[in-house]
Amino acid sequence: MGIDFSLTKLFDDLPTLRIVEIGSSPVDGEPPYQQLVDRGAARVVGFEPDAEACRKLQAQGSAVATYLPYAIGDGSAATLHVCQSPGMSSLYEPDMEILAAFQGFGEWGRVVDRRSITTHRLDDLAEVDSIDYLKLDVQGSELSVLRGAQRKLTSTLVVETEAQFVPFYKNQPLFADVDQELRAAGFLLHRFGPMVSRVFKPMLVRDSIYSGLSQTLWSDAVYVRRFTDFAKLSSEALMKIALVTHDLYRSIDLVALALGHVDQRNGSDRLSRYQRRLTAP
Predict the structure, then answer these.
(1) Contact 138/173 with Cβ under 8 angstroms?
(2) pTM of the model
(3) Quick one: which of 31, 63, 104, 208 has the fewest CB in 10 Å?
(4) How far apart are CA 67 and CA 73, in angstroms?
(5) Distances in whole angstroms, Cα of residue 211 to Cα of each of 124, 137, 156
(6) Distance between CA 26 and CA 33 in Å, rounded?
């Protein structure tokens, strides 16, 4: 089965995807949606409160990618805890008792600076008119971001968020809290990314502090608008769901479901075209 193709190669009339990324620092490399941007299939508004990281992103920006130095949350004042490792910086204070139990995290999570900031609600930002695909990597602030975007979430189609199972920060909301918020907003969990584990000190596996073993710590969780509501969605929304879930996640059965609803409404043959492409030699 050949699934390694872009839906943009099969359908030339796809609507432009509106992507919002909260926490755009490229610490993990190129974002998973970059190829869609490169193909002209998506526009991005990204937010990164770290000034230096935001400047780098702005230098790489384009007519279809805008990056702003805002901390996104519930609109309240907050303290940014700047950590030794930029990827650990958070509006929550690191829980050193937990971090110290694992290789590396006690050092990476050490706070080197504290900055008073004001967060911004997505619902209040004119720079974001609407969201199709929302990606969150905000080190504990996922719930605050979602609660500050309740109006814009009503038309959002896909959300990818970091799902934390063990709190790295004091009073940090965990996966169960985020899951309840997203289900209340009309989403269902679609899939997890790889589960990330680490070994407890003092053990090492293959002499690497990055190796995992028994303790699962986090993953990425993908949420999609309820599939039982697909019949209520517009054809444009369904095509956007198909684009995201095929190109980013290769969820071919969910893509087929969305395309089938489009065909039933419009008398088109998108599903059969998709199935033929999947089985092509």
Answers:
(1) no
(2) 0.96
(3) 63
(4) 16
(5) 42, 22, 36
(6) 13
**Interval 131-153 mean pLDDT:** 97
The answer to whether 168 and 98 are in contact (CB under 8 A) is yes
Q: What 3-state class would DSSP assign to 223? A: strand
Contact 265, 18 (CB under 8 A): no
Tell me if residue 35 falls in helix, strand or coil: helix
Distance (Å, rounded) from C-alpha 127 to C-alpha 143? Answer: 21
Is-contact 87 29, C-beta < 8 A? no
Contact 172, 164 (CB under 8 A): yes
For residue 232, give Cα distances in angstroms to 130, 216, 225, 257. 19, 37, 11, 13
For residues 137-151, average pLDDT: 96
Looking at residues 109-120, what average pLDDT do you find? 96
Contact (CB, 8 A) for 271 and 259: yes
230-262 per-position pLDDT tens digit = 999 999 999 999 999 999 999 999 999 999 999
At 64-103, the pLDDT tens digits run 999 999 999 999 999 999 999 988 999 999 999 999 999 9
Q: How confident is the model at residue 49 (pLDDT cuts 50, 70, 90)?
A: confident
Q: Over the range 228-244, which residues count as b (16 or more CB within 10 Å of their CB) and which as e? A: eebeebebebbbbbbbb
Which residues are registered as beta bridge partners of 68? 47
Domain 15-279, second-level architecture: 3-Layer(aba) Sandwich (3.40)
How many CB atoms sit inside 10 A of residue 253's CB?
Answer: 7
Instruction: Region of 29 please: left (phi>0), alpha (psi -120 to 50) or beta.
Output: left
